[in-house]
Amino acid sequence: MKIKIHPCLSLICVTTVAALTIPGTASRAEDAPPGDARIEFFEKKVRPILSEHCYQCHSADTKPSGGLRVDDRNGLLLGGDAGPAIVAGKPEESLLLERVQHGTKKVMPKEGDLLTDAEIAILSQWIKDGVAWPREEIPTYIGRKREDFEELKARHWAWQPLQHPVPPAVADPAWPKSDLDRFILAGLEAKKLQPVADADAVTLIRRVTFDLTGLPPTPAEVEAFVRECAQGGGDKETRRQSDEEKGLAQNVSLSPSPLVSLSSPAAQQAIAHLTDRLLASPAFGERWGRHWLDVARYGESTGPSRNIPYPHAWKYRDYVIDAVNRDVPFNRFIQEQIAGDLLPAATPADRDRQLTATGFLALGVKDVNQRFKTRFIMDNVDEQIDAVSRSFLALTVSCARCHDHKFDPIPTTDYYALAGIFTSTDNAAGLRNKMGGGGLDYYDPSMLIKLTSDVPEPPAEQVAKLKAEFEEKKKAWDAIRGTPEGLKPAANGKPTQRPFRLAFEKAQSELMALTDPAARGFAIHGVREGQTIADTEVRIRGEAERIGPTVPRGFLTTFQVPDAPAINPQQSGRLELAEWISSPQNPLTVRVAVNRIWQHLFGEGLVTTVDNFGVKGDVPSNPMLLDYLADEFIRGGWSVKTLVRKIVLSHAYQLGGAVPAGYPDVDPADRLIWRHAPRPLDAEEMRDTILASSGRLQTMPPEASPAKSLKMVEMRDNGPEARQITEAADHALYRSVYLPLLRGVTPKAIEPFDPVSQTLVTGRREATTVPTQALFLLNSTFVRQQALALAEKVSANAERTDAEWVREIYQHILDRAPSDRETTRALDFLGEYTRSWRQSSPRVAEVASATSAGETSTDAGATTAVAGQVANPDDVDRAGAPVKEDAVEPQSGRAAAWMNLIQALYASAEFRFVR
Length: 915
Known about the structure:
Blueprint: E1 31-32, H1 37-53, H2 73-78, H3 95-100, H4 117-128, E2 133-134, H5 147-155, H6 179-190, H7 201-213, H8 219-230, H9 243-248, H10 265-279, H11 282-295, H12 313-325, H13 330-339, H14 348-357, H15 373-392, H16 412-423, E3 425-428, E4 449-450, H17 460-480, H18 484-487, H19 498-515, E5 523-524, E6 526-529, E7 536-539, E8 547-551, H20 574-581, H21 587-602, H22 623-635, H23 640-648, H24 663-666, E9 679-680, H25 683-694, H26 720-731, H27 771-779, H28 781-795, H29 802-814, H30 820-836, H31 842-852, E10 865-866, E11 887-888, H32 893-906, H33 909-912, E12 913-914
Parallel strand pairs: 1-2
Antiparallel strand pairs: 3-6, 4-5, 7-8, 9-12, 10-11
Helix pairs in contact: 1-4, 7-8, 7-10, 8-10, 11-12, 13-14, 13-20, 15-16, 17-19, 21-22, 21-23, 25-28, 28-32, 29-30, 30-32
């Protein structure tokens, strides 16, 4: 069987990265045309010298010593660990010439004959003449005009200018509550469909509260909302229930019948009050900030290969949450993340905030174990292009890295027009590449952004002491490093020099922790202007070393943006790129933004492929509504809160979930919005709701992140650093958006429920319903801890009847009161379970013994636990230390019964879905 593979999957379309700048401008090395005398000089004179004396240690066929390649022009220009090896046109500034001079301290080559004076003169002349290099044969696809691209530009919906649609006339003018509803109803009427009845008040407050804050409403909030909806001069208006709703009524309402009409003026005022309160809540920024962090592929480490922590990443997370809560206009939000360092700032605090915003471009996945610096840089650029183009434009521009885009009219020259902007930008993530590195080899403090805040001076005496210790250890290490004595095995079988290296690294780390502003927290991962500003060349077939023609920095030619700014030749072009993307004339940015907002409120975007508006993406289910929302978004000052409010107050959003017969045959996916479809709680909502219902959720944000204390050294997935992070997440009681999110170390409490991958732009998460989720809810330590916390509160209180407690637990967990039948079943279960619980069971005796010995859980004191229980025998780090997990056991049959009832409610579909 032949497997058909998407063309882009056979290419390196999305790769891992990190950052430096490619030198250029006036002294830029040249690709000389065939027949040029300088090429003949290079091939006959220069290449033989490099091949004979340098390739053995500094070529693609070796692990380049010192990170330097001399068989590639950009490898020479970028240089290795000591900096650029060559400065084109300036032999006197070229490190290569300095190192081959006789009598220098680090003369090269280390092995074989030294270069003769004549050979050195040849290299000097070659550098002086501009470092000519043979030009690649340029493939015919580069720069050609394609008629099929022009046709696609003219006809594909996403690239056409925004329309300004007039709300259509509808046959039922009483139903719409806003112009938005007219677009919905017109679409339904065209298919001879009618919207279903409205949701009831309890369903609606649960929906709105989850959608806007990611948290459930409290029982008091539900009761107050239902009461407010029913007020208004004694209005007793009720609405007709559908057959489907009659069957559900007993399970959805505090007062199952009659149902309060949401069409009354009192109800609409109550909904508006509720919406405004939720929009003003800090929880709104935490919920909707998490949506953007998905898109921004936020993570607190570099990811696979060598997983290096980003200890300052949490500052970008907090920036996002703050920006959402402050309702920073979305066009400004874009500009700050792409070019915050280039925007004016009124105060030092504003400046630091804008610098922090550029973390968007720096916090992607990076392969620091990359051997070649040129590839390292271009992979970094590719990751940035992918992040910017898919998050703001919903286009897969990275698929034009190796060739013209297979489906969309994006030529490879457009890709490298954008690439020039990012090769002129330092990706200051604090990292450098090194194959096979260790310790602090990957950490480059100069490649972090220092904040403008005043940095207090460290204690002088302590610095002097640590500096002296460092110099002493360094001297000892340098003296023995690589010597026969140092390499000789010690009694333990390891090299004699090993303790000297460890002592040196420890002294280095202690000194850096005290003197490095970044290590002390006064830095962020972000971007800044590169030392060299220049256009870049096409890389033939996407290979970093194969240089094609230079492409001027610029923007996509896929669609037109009137009055697009010209790139300042003295700057990278990021500022102009940010202005081009955030222009109200850009037809994609605003459509993509409002489509994402719609998806977060309806579960599905008007365009279902929220990250791909290209030819292979979806088409809008209601194109006029999409452009209407885009137009309203711009008119509203790009305010996310204003648009969210408008949608929540629409009649379409307030619909019930009934499914009338025949409707799925006409519109099976509910693309026309004839009902409000249920959705599962996402990973963060699930954890936060369990904590909230148990009464243990801490709404106060934590300070920083547990990852803040990690050094920028390789972190093993099952090593002590990962264990430290896992345990911090396991014991945290704050909201899930603040959990440490290192790539490859997913917190256990959210792992079963499809958390975001953190690798690529993710506007829409996968949503699965699988048996392991139910098993987690019944067996995980986290769920059992929260269930027992609530159970102990109930079992210890004798002032209320069990029936009253059943009602309260239902209200806390399901946001509704139980029916009489549910109450009876719960009471029967509690009685039977309590009777069957054996106080003398071996497990209980073990818990009682541990309790008497004082071995109780430190997790807020709500559960009784035995320390040291290993939940999974595989949870062992390489040193053999088990990952301990508290065992949760109730201390009485009554507490055990209540705990199991609570867990059953957590595992119910009603708890796990928002209707």
